[in-house]
TrEMBL record, chain A:
This is Phosphatidylcholine:ceramide cholinephosphotransferase 1. The chain crosses the membrane at residues 134-154, 179-200, 212-230, 302-322, 328-345. It comes from Astyanax mexicanus (Blind cave fish). One of its GO terms (biological process) is apoptotic process. Belongs to the sphingomyelin synthase family. The gene is SGMS1. The keyword Membrane applies. Residues 7-70 form the SAM domain. It is a multi-pass membrane protein.
Amino acid sequence: MKKAGQWSKEQVSLWLAEEGMQEYVEPLQQADGQALLRLSQADFQKPPLSRISPDSGKQLLEKIKTLNIEHHIEAHKNGFANGHVVISHEGDAGASSKTKRNGLVNGFHKELVRIPIPEPAGPQFPTEWGKTGVAFLYAICCFVFTSIMISIVHERVPPKEATPPLPDKFFDLFDRVEWAFSVCEINGMILVILWIIQWSLMKHKSIVGRRFLFIVGTLYLYRCITMYITTLPVPGMHFKCSPKLYGDWESQMRRGMKMLAGGGLTITGSHNLCGDYLYSGHTVMLTLTYLFMKEYSPRRFWCYHWGCGLLCAVGIFCILLAHDHYTIDVVIAYFITTRLFWWYHTMANQPDLKRPSRTNFISRVWWYRFFQYLEQNVKDVVPRSYQMPISWRSLQSGHVKYSRIDSD
Amino acid sequence: MATVDHQCERHPTDGHAHSGVSPGGRVCPVHSPKAEESKRAHKGLGRHRDYIKISVPEGKTIRLPMEWWKTFLAFFYAAFNLVLTTVMITVVHERVPAKETSPPLPDKFFDYIDRVKWAFTVTEVNGMVLVGIWCTQMVFHRYRSIVGRRFFFLMGTLYMYRCVTMYITTLPVPGMHMTCAPKLYGDSQAKLQRVLQLISGAGLSITGSHMMCGDFLYSGHTVMLTLTYLFIKEYSPRSFWWYHLLCWLMAATGVVCILVAHEHYSVDVVVAYFITSRLFYWYHTMANVQAVKCSPSSYLTHTWWNPIFNFLERNVQNQVPCSFCWPVTWPPACLKNPCKNYSMVQSVREE
């Protein structure tokens, strides 16, 4: 670029536009480089400049002063005037080889400095309802399989006259209480309903739902295996088991479906099949809903946690009090449920453990691939945040959608 | 000179603090190394002011202190639990229903496969061989104190769980072939004798000490087979695939033969395998992955034995490398010529 003193009128206008002072272009149309440099405070007191300039030309005068300095520096041919290294600019290869600008680099020499803004790598907690759907199907399959298995096992339960109930320490200490099992089932229903309400209010319900369904499905699958391989006799003489249907597959199917429809609860009248003792499904549901409710609710709700814990503990105690399961069934169910819950959540929360490696023993479980499929896009610990399930705004008609704000 | 000293003072603490910091950048309160080590470095500098300490970056030193006393504690824990188990078996034996009144429970494996008499001997022989191999391997391992500690702790815990499950519900005998010793109603002396006999024979049929019934859920034989196999595989070189395969075959055959001999129900074996493998993986993940020990979002620390684990593994900062050495150094130290005492060098080395 030529020195400011030698600018033509067009170059002056160009410079003014570049500096963001387009308003001065028109009145200074006729000014060339020299005229520009000669502008003073007095010029801004008179029209037309006084009409346009909001700050009596202070800003423009500053810039002109800078130009003046450069002009003087050029004139004195001082190499490193301000200690700044001479920079040669990109677009001006031919012109600038002789005249190197010193001092302050201003305006026309657009040095583009790229400031890298870290791009967020996609949403941290993608909803991915598809995966939740897969987990739901898995859980349904496991439930159906369990019902079928109970139906099969029922045929093999030895009659209580032939094989009396096994000796159990809890039964020795506590006699049977008749209404205890209803208490257990009511507690179970309350906990499940509370959990569903809590889940529907969660912000990341697809992720949490996926986890619950997977864990519940796996626990019932394990239960199928333990129920099937060895059949324990009925825990008490009070049991009324439905009669056996030897080989009548259709009725057995129907029975299994009836049980599934009733949720396997005595209250709904679908708990008349025997043999499903090791391990206790009631304990699994009570413990699991309690663990999930505690995990995904705010820390300070200690009342709520204690209340649910009490419901769960009373429910489990009542199972034993009603002599409806052996103690071993309840203990194993509690053990497997808590271990699986903690195992899964530790894997989900630690990014180190989501990659199989020599030290990562936890990845050696058989369901590791399925786990990776469900959790690979969840980058961090799921925060406990809540929102109304249906936002009011979407219910209002004629609502203007602000694309940037609404895409949360 | 002044600046050099200043740097020396800073470096030891930086070096020491680094290994105790979890990936999140916070210092893990339980597992940071002792501060005394850094203090000792400072004291050394104070005495010999004419030395300039050239701070060498710490690098990844392997911090695996031996701490034999912890291993002995773990051993006593395991021994205690074994004794408790034998006492429990004696107690439970009294409550087993007679096989006439309570016939064996229906079991899917027993429906398909009939009993083979000599199968249980195979199991026990396999078990003894595996235990022998493991003991040899442990003795030759360089970090035998750490490995031994882990083995004793896991074995003790598994047997303790077994006490609980055996006691609360008593399963009937799995087959009519089982001959149970007669019950001793209230005769404590004889019961004690039985306990001692069981301990001395390690509960094996071969030694004739397996005559008590009732200890079915869950199977102790499966626990030993599985646990020794897992340890053998974990603490031996990865390239020894033939060795791993052989041990795996022995363990698997042993477990299957328990069922073939109709000595345990299928559920006993399955539950035993499940609990053993899960506990092993859990413990070793906690021991090897630093992030899991300290992070608040790690649920592995919610188990009841977490404080014991912290106590045992507090100073083990790295994964135990697989290296072997002779258990006893030769020649013994007393036969060696003592070095001349170079006073200055020796005293610096002591720090």
